Every structure is written in structure tokens, then in C-alpha cells.
Amino acid sequence: MHLISESLEQFRFYKSGIISHLCNFLLLQITDILCQNNQEVSICIKRTDEIFRNFKKLSSHNYRKHHDILFYANNLNISTTYLSRIVKNITGHTVHFHISELLCTEAKRLLDTTDMGIKEIADELGFSDQSVFGKFFVKATGVSPLKYRKR
Q1: Residue 95 C-alpha from the chain's centroid
Q2: What is the spatial distance between Cα 78 and Cα 70, in angstroms, rounded to a whole number?
Q3: CB under 8 Å to 8, separation ≥6 — which residues?
Q4: Do 51 and 86 contact (CB within 8 A), yes or no?
Q5: How many CB atoms lie within 10 A of CB 90?
Q6: Cα separation, 50 vs 37, whole angstroms
Q7: Are 124 and 116 in contact (CB under 8 A)?
Q8: Residues with Cβ within 8 Å of residue 93, at least 6 apart in sequence
Q9: What is the pLDDT of residues 3-15, one digit of tens each?
Q10: Which of 36, 58, 108, 112 has the highest Cβ tally under 10 A?
């Protein structure tokens, strides 16, 4: 945390989101390291926890291009209903919420740190057009992407 704390000061508007995602990423990395180091030890992990961990890993790599639950369920070889139930039971939030959080955090980062146009950001994040991205952003933050960038 000390290494990134100075860098986070410039991102004051979404600092808590970045910290939350970094903590989740750190926990996933620690889990992977522990699983790799303890291959010979039999670890009993509930199937639902393993599916959730794989969903988080999959979503962190694919959220820019795949916003629909079907993609994640298919890649995990389970039904959309089962994935929805697992994520909701573990976190209290929906699959859509988790993907939206990733998209919103990345959109804010791009608006704050780049000169990319709104259309370019919409394309970068896998939205069909600028209008759909704008509606998503307003629903998630309460302001338009342009107003967010200007403040």
C-alpha cells in the first residue's frame, strides 16, 4: 500500500474503488500462490467458492469486451442462473453489479487520465456506441461523462 499510496492521491474521486479492486486482486493472487505451493496438500474448497473465484478472475480480464452474464457462465461451464445465485449469495450483489463496477472504475480512470474522446472510451470499454455508454455512466455516477471530466 505504501508503494501505491502516493500514486492514488492524484485519483481522489475514485480512490476507494481502486483500493477495493486492488485488494480483491491481491487476495486472488495470494489464493493462486497458496494453491500452487500446496499442490500436494489436499485442500477442500467449496465448489461455489471456486466458481466465484474463477468468475472474479475471468471478469477482471474480460470486462471491457464482455458485459453479459452468458459469456461468464459459458466460460465457467455453468448456467446463468447458477452463476447469478452463487455471486448473489457470496457478495450480496449481482453479476451485473460486479461488471458495472469494473467498467465504471475504468471509465473514470480513462476520463481522468487520458485525452481520449467519449466515443473512444465507449469503444475501448466495449459499448455499442457513445449513447449507450453515456446512459450507463449517468446511471452509475449521476453525471454525464463530459460533466465528470470537466469537474
Answers
A1: 10
A2: 9
A3: 15, 18, 19
A4: yes
A5: 16
A6: 17
A7: yes
A8: 87
A9: 566 666 666 666 6
A10: 108
Q: What is the pLDDT of residues 33-88, one digit of tens each?
A: 877 766 655 556 788 999 999 999 999 999 999 999 999 999 999 999 999 999 99
24 to each of 89, 98, 141, how far by Cα in Å? Answer: 17, 12, 22
Q: Do residues 118 and 137 touch, judged by C-beta distance below 8 A?
A: no
What is the rounded distance in angstroms from the CA atom of residue 134 to the CA atom of residue 131? 5
CB-based contact 53:28 (threshold 8 Å): yes
DSSP class of residue 114 equals -
The dihedral built from the CA positions of residue 91, 85, 97 and 72, taken in this order, carries a sign that is positive
Q: Which three cell numbers stand for residue 137?
A: 455512466
